[in-house]
TrEMBL record, chains A, B:
Sorted UniProt keywords: ATP-binding, Kinase, Magnesium, Metal-binding, Nucleotide-binding, Thiamine biosynthesis, Transferase
Domain PurM-like C-terminal: 160-304
Cited PANTHER family: THIAMINE-MONOPHOSPHATE KINASE (PTHR30270:SF3)
Residues reported to bind Mg(2+) 3: D37, D82, D218
Source superkingdom: Archaea
Annotated positions binding Mg(2+) 4: D37, T52, D82
Binding residues for Mg(2+) 5: D221
Gene name as annotated: thiL
Note in the entry: Reaction mechanism of ThiL seems to utilize a direct, inline transfer of the gamma-phosphate of ATP to TMP rather than a phosphorylated enzyme intermediate.
SUPFAM superfamilies: PurM C-terminal domain-like, PurM N-terminal domain-like
Species classification: Archaea, Methanobacteriati, Methanobacteriota, Stenosarchaea group, Methanomicrobia
Residues involved in Mg(2+) 2 binding: D54, D82
Record protein name field: Thiamine-monophosphate kinase
Length: 332, 332
């Protein structure tokens, strides 16, 4: 057989190949390895157990400006964000930590404190783990949660006519990374989105309990990639309104020299760990009342694809690009 | 504060430091990060959820002779072994896989098939995961299981007078590694212990349901280290009988030039993924009837420490050494 390096085929096609090997599931596993943020297990009469795992590395996931406490916070936060994406309440977090042998013990302890503080912020804890040595600092987190069965949210369920919403600001983490990489002085409020992301656990539980949300996921790979994922699972298209994208005022200021870039950033950069979700039209008013939520467009027929209307009325196709771990062309 | 690299303090002291940071647990977490193989969560009336995570690396955990299928098998097996250690039934396995970018896609698929086949062997499945790129092949597995509350087994519970038992052979994986490292021709039956370890799920569930077992863990770090861990949790000592250590006949043959080394191997090498457990005296007969189980000694008072009686009657102290990930002096 011909040699094909994984770098040639792209992250999502590789995930498809591997998920296919794992496709057979025993009874009681509602959703397995594949498109959603968590696996879903039917563990008792009234609620599902959801579980997710994410591996982070020094080189690709932790900007050099991150403190060890922030590295720990981030490692818990990305996993809790996946729990939030299903509408679930966190039950616990596990952490497998691979440390270079020259790591200062105090640095390792700060990582642990960051993880603990993030878990505690969301009324949960680090309940287990593994420590060993590794060439590169590597942290693999696992988070568990529970959700009442009727409140489980997945990427499947969006209907034509539903409204599309996001929590928080769009592209804030991308702007922070841009500032760090280009030595631009950015305020803490911008840097925080990248260095101390906020998993939307509380918002997610409220949204799930209201019953108006039809599909949900987090925006860790960017809004554009998330829309493509929702589109595939729900078999729908999307029409966004550019002017409705929630931009952080400090980011607008930071990027004022290039507003075109600003909107690209909002659509195509990842790392925000906000929620993107679809809402039945009759529920949108109640949902927006929760605060810190913006309506950015609506669900359309799948054949209309994914597009964005600019302020001048022109409509552009949203490209299938964003933050992918393998950082290579995706040819699906 | 003075710089202390993690390589200086040893794996178990580092785990103690980090576990201490994670010591506060919310309600419903019965056992958290710390001495046991799994965290234990009170998830419903009749049973506990147990969960464990382990990170494995190309350089330290996968001998070069391992096939990609065996790498996958091993990654699932080590986590299932931790589930077994608690007496639990597997519920599912998650796998976060970090692949070097030049990994052949076919190699990655074989890893996935190995994981799937191991999970399937124990009536479970790979239910979720994460894939990204990494300098060194890194696989972080997470396994979940459930156990009826009254059947949960931990490292705490051994009493003076209990019998000490192990499943399978002692030191088989160590002998295989010795053969590989010294270019000695070893039969497949020996190599398999190292390259395709068998998590003792079925034995563990039977043992847990019988009610005679008072404490249990797996022997992945070697019998000696496991006894020290059981000793610390249960506050007891142990007296082993050297002649009762279950040696694989092929290993005896392989090491026939050096029988002294053979017993060291059985005590101090890891990688076996057998179970070590203590049994109430009145239950020992029933337990041994299960087969593939050997009684190797008994529980004594803690002040008697951990010792082994040799065939000639002399008694030696069992040293606190074995396979530790950090492979450095442990000074607790």
């Amino acid at each position: 057989m011909r040699y094909t390096p994984v770098s040639k085929i792209g992250e999502r096609p590789l995930i498809s190949l591997i998920s296919n090997i794992f496709r057979e599931l025993p009874d009681g596993i509602i959703l397995g390895a594949g498109p959603d943020d968590c696996a879903v297990i039917d563990i008792k009469e009234s609620s599902y157990l959801v579980v997710t795992t994410d591996m982070l590395h020094r080189m690709t996931d932790f900007p050099w400006q991150m403190s060890p406490w922030q590295i720990g916070w981030m490692s818990a936060a990305v996993n809790l964000s996946d729990i939030a994406a299903m509408g679930a309440r966190p039950l616990g977090v596990l952490a497998a930590i691979g440390l270079p042998i020259d790591t200062d013990v105090a640095f390792a302890e700060e990582i642990a404190r960051g993880m603990r503080d993030c878990a505690r912020e969301y009324d949960t804890a680090i309940i287990g783990g593994d420590i060993d040595t590794h060439d590169e600092l590597t942290i693999c987190g696992t988070a568990l949660g529970t959700v009442p069965k009727e409140q489980l949210l997945t990427r499947k369920g969006a209907h034509v006519g539903d409204k599309v919403c996001v929590t928080g600001y769009a592209g804030a983490a991308g702007a922070a990374l841009y500032a760090l990489e280009n030595d631009i002085n950015a305020p803490d409020s911008v840097l925080k989105a990248l260095l101390e992301p906020t998993p939307r656990i509380n918002e997610a539980m409220k949204l799930a309990s209201m019953g108006h949300v039809t599909s949900m996921m987090d925006t860790s790979d960017g809004i554009a990639m998330s829309l493509y994922d929702l589109s595939k699972s729900s078999e729908v298209g999307f029409r966004l309104q550019e002017k409705m994208l929630p931009l952080q005022p400090e980011v607008e200021e930071l990027m004022s020299f290039n507003r075109e870039n600003l909107y690209s950033m909002a659509l195509y950069t990842g790392g925000d760990f906000e929620l993107i979700f679809t809402v039945r039209p009759e529920g949108i008013e109640d949902v927006l009342k929760l605060g810190n939520i913006s309506m950015i467009g609506e669900v359309v027929h799948q054949e209309k694809s994914i597009s964005i209307q600019k302020s001048d009325g022109t409509v552009l196709q949203v490209e299938r690009k964003g933050y992918e771990q393998l950082k290579i062309a995706d040819n699906t």
